[in-house]
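INTERNAL AUDIT FORM
Audit reference: QA-55
Scope: verify that the stored structure record matches its stored sequence.
Auditor: D.O.
Record contents follow.
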Amino acid sequence: MPAELDDLIAYLDASPSPWHAVESSLRRLPGFTRVEETAPWIDVPARGVTVRDGALIAWSIPDGATPSTGFRIGGAHTDSPGLRVKPRPDADSVGWKQLAVEVYGGILNNTWLDRDLAVAGRLVGADGTTTLVDIAEPIARVPQLAVHLDRGVNDNGLQLDSQRHLTPVWGVGAAQTGEFATWIGERAGLPDPPAWWELCLYDLQGAAVLGADRSLLTSARLDNQLSCWAATVALAAAAPADHIAVIVLNDHEEVGSASTTGAQGPFLETVLERLVLARGGTRDDFHRALVASGCISADNAHAVHPNY
């Protein structure tokens, strides 16, 4: 199905961070009215969506649904393992400018070596305003040690310390405090450097179909933007009759889900309860709806590897 495949590839390439994944999903939900959590939910739309930072919940309520009608929920997560820029990123060593990064989630360390890395995410101003940013250019690189200085690497295996060996280079010379903040603020068109950020480094190589028979898809962030895309396009096409269709795209699954936007947080429960109460239901109706509900947590799994 080339149209669907093309759309999936476009989704993956446009979503280098959880916040961009939310925007990619919003663009695929035409006819869904956005509802702010801070607003009163009195007359909720039958097809609606609400966003909390890097997480999204959308729903489709059929005609005739009662306050105790059950939910059918598809869950996925917007975040992926990777390298995140630290709050104090300006570093240097022996004449190289480097970016201090943290390892976010369970990455495969060696896959981050010798790749052209761009940076994307969101910037936070001193007044609390947020700005999405995507510098889709080769900005940084984690260079591997030359084989001349690690003669046993092919026999003994590559040994990488996450705190010492995954620090990207992004220039030459001595680092200046505030240099990265000034640079990213200017590239984002901000009048002042950001006061805070949540930024992901990502590989510039985009999603692609490969193989002589065009049977394989390769991409970063398939875990778990593949499921985010599938849930989004399924909800957009759904016409539920005896249940309320819901998708929840949580953030922070890769680091335990224990946040306000994670699956262990209150986001989903709060939204489901408000959907019941806004349609005239009671707390008892909410619990009756939960009993009649089901949820599928959709994520990627590992099957086989032909070389092992």
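Auditor finding: record pair retrieved intact. The first strand starts at residue 33 and ends at 34.
Action required: none
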